[in-house]
Amino acid sequence: MASKLLIKNAKAIVTCDENDHVYKETDILIEGPKVTAIGPGIVSEGAQVIDGTGKFVYPGLINTHHHFFQTFVRNLITIDYPNLTVMDWIDKIYRIFQIIDNDVIYYSTLTAFADLIKHGCTCAFDHQYCYTNKTGKDPVDRQMEAADLMGIRYHAGRGSNTLPRSEGSSIPDLMLETTGEFLKDCERLIRSYHDPKPYSMRQIVMAPCQPINCRPETFIETVAAARSMGVRMHTHLGEGETEGIRSRYGKRTLEWCRDIGFIGEDVWYAHNWEVLPEEYRLLAETKTGVSHCPTPAVLGGFPILDIKAMQEAGVLISLGCDGSATNDSSNLLDALRVSYMMQAYHTKERGGCVSAYDMLKIATVNGAKTLGRQDLGSLEPEKAADLFMIDGEALELAGAVHDPKNLLARVGLTGNVWLTMINGKVVYQDGVITGVDEKRLASEGEAVCTRVIRKPSEAFRRFL
């Protein structure tokens, strides 16, 4: 018999469903992994009760682009991302990435998961392209261990870099793979972890890192393999590489992806701030998604996506943190706030910007669509019980609680939430991650970071 949880008397439930329902003074019944009822006065014998008095409830945020391993390369002014082009930054930072081992992968992933969970994220995609001589083929396996420990819903993007520096990439030899190695390991991971069923906690995405740093056959063969095995595809696109791709292939990156078939409803791209208005139609017609990562765009001084125009054209936009080496945070609530502010600045002059609530739906409903998850993204019966709660009675929110739909991004609620639930299980509440000794893990992680990265790396030596 499925375990039951009953959230009683929530001050407001923002569902993000098709009708944008907001329920007041209402209950939610959860049985096993899913929501089974929403309404006042629900009675369920034997259910564990969570007192929702004064609390606002939201669907869990869904992160569609990240690089967890970079949480151990944060706060590093010796490689100052805001003062570099993306391609120059990649050239410098990969010299640190090449010394990463599987202990770094494991503890940096735990660090990212903790940050995500404490800020309301319940489903996270990570683009794991850091395969070094030290890691071998184990990084995604170590990430799955971390996901199991933290109880988060995890989609792993198996990335790769296959073009050597001698042929025009930025990739050190210690981080290179062949296309064959990449495809073989993707097949192994899909067999081992990919679960396409409703309420799945683990899925695999085939995600070669970026066209500029891969051989063309890596992408071409990914298309065939991914579609034969029924998994989605992802890559970086339109973040500074377009001129390099034009020089190499005589066409823009999006056009190149279209021509080889790396486009469609089962594909989404990260960033895309180089996309042109005339390319919106191609993205919309092919139902290709875009993960908007606002924080690195601001830090890097890059063009702001015109989300309103893209949505009006029919482009699917979701929200991502991006790697901590270009963000320094895994806080998706903060990304929600930054993205809203960016849109307000960018589009107000031409008549109306994306609302704070629109941005919330981008971070929930659209994230679920991007990952191909019909069971996630909103709070309604038969959807997964992925949610977070905030304390609507906190003094700092007085005067703002009349509109819970717009509250998060507009008021700038970016701190820790009160509770996070994933697949019907409370994984975080009142400042505590369930079943995890955070201090011990943080101490172990710091020791790993110092041993593997800080001491051997020139970029860290001035601080030691």
TrEMBL record:
Write out the entry's keywords from A to Z.
Hydrolase
- Offer an example of a GO molecular function term for this protein: hydrolase activity, acting on carbon-nitrogen (but not peptide) bonds
| Gene3D superfamilies (alphabetical) | Metal-dependent hydrolases, Urease, subunit C, domain 1
> InterPro entries attached here?
Amidohydro-rel (IPR006680), Metal-dep_hydrolase_composite (IPR011059), Metal_Hydrolase (IPR032466), MTA/SAH_deaminase (IPR050287)
Q: Which SUPFAM superfamilies match?
A: Composite domain of metallo-dependent hydrolases, Metallo-dependent hydrolases
Q: Which Pfam families match?
A: Amidohydro_1
PANTHER family, per database record: AMIDOHYDROLASE-RELATED DOMAIN-CONTAINING PROTEIN, AMINOHYDROLASE SSNA-RELATED
- Which species is this record about? Lacrimispora saccharolytica (strain ATCC 35040 / DSM 2544 / NRCC 2533 / WM1)
**Residue intervals of the Amidohydrolase-related domain:** 56-427
Report the protein name in the record.
Amidohydrolase
